[in-house]
Amino acid sequence: MTKIVYFDVENDEYDYLKNQNDGKYDYFLTGKSLNNLDKIPEEYKDADVISCFTTSRVGKDVLEKFSKLRLIALRSVGFNHIDLNYCDEHDISVVNTPNYGNKSVAEFAFGLMIDVCRKITLSYLEYKDSQTDAQKYIGSELGGKTVGVVGLGAIGSEFARLAYGFDMKILGYDIKENDKLKEMYKIKYTDFDSLLEKSDFISIHAPLTKGNKHLFNDKSFRRMKNTSVLINTARGEIVETQALYNALMQNEIAGAGLDVLESEETISDSDYLVDINRLNNTVLKQTILNSRLQQLPNVIVTPHIAYNTHEAVFRILDITMQNINAFESGTIQNKVN
Asked: I want to staple 147 with a disulfide (CB 3.0 to 4.6 A). Which of 19, 201, 251, 280 is the partner?
């Protein structure tokens, strides 16, 4: 019987995974992440399949402990936490779960945009402390404003639908144009520099690639309006942290709503405190800047939760089981390597 180990299992996922695996697979469920700091139990090491979330860090030193591994079933879209080179060299397939949170992430990104431009969180926190200053909380309407959408895949398209409903003008930047989106939401595709210069808001919905790391840098922010707001629910590495901090401090842009950050794991992952030597100079610098970003009144930072709705979580589990069942039947779907 195929052996599967599910890591990073949350409390509300146990019953679902038990129902899907009982009598079909030899399986283990654990809330622990998979990394090189925790000892891997002996009964896990001959697993045919492992499944994990982005909180696991699956490098060569972890993978070589699994003697029979054939499949990594990710419960995420992203896969930059997996050593794909090792997997290629050892005939280990890696599959992900695309399109599970299109609405969830798009709605969250739109919520961040409204929050920043209407100063909702800022006014709420100050009002809780018995402070209020109506002049300080003056915001701006979305209707009639221009929003630039970077990446018009499934999530970006859903974000565009919401923006269109708010009577916003939409600029799009993507490697290919979608005529259907042009017709439905009046999207005008443009080059990156034009999008930077003309947008009142910019929302990032592109996957992280070698070509777009630090797409938003000092040069990018200097092209943006000083009244513009940046929203990022995609990947932290698309935005250069130092450049963003500088742009905010120098009033090159008006604000930011961020669900993702460079080196965000150092904030949420206690393993980095257990082994402080994991923090190299670059990561330390980014961590300090992240902390400073969180303190700015015109910035909202959330802990990578844009995907996190009941509906999306169970779509992840559904797609994960479909991927595993397909693999067991000799078919590989949603393969990333």
From this structure: 201
CA dihedral 320, 323, 327, 333 (to 10 degrees): -150
Q: Cβ–Cβ contacts within 10 Å for residue 312, how many?
A: 17
Q: Can you give the residue range of the structural domain that contains 235?
A: 102-301
In 3D space, the residue among 68, 50, 70 whose CA is nearest the CA of residue 8 turns out to be 50
CA distances from 236 to 87, 231, 240 (A): 25, 11, 8
pLDDT of 247 reads 98
* Chain segment 302-333, per-residue pLDDT in tens: 999 999 999 999 999 999 999 999 999 999 99
What's the CA gap between 232 and 205, in Å, rounded?
A: 7
Pick the catalytic residue: 235, 237, 252, 262?
A: 235
Tell me the backbone φ, ψ of residue 66, rounded to 5 degrees: -100, 110
Give how many domains the chain has, as a whole number: 2
Tell me whether residue 235 is one of the annotated catalytic residues.
Answer: yes
Tell me which of 81, 205, 304, 315 is the catalytic residue. 304
Q: Do 135 and 284 reside in the same domain of the chain?
A: yes
79 and 107, same domain (yes or no): no
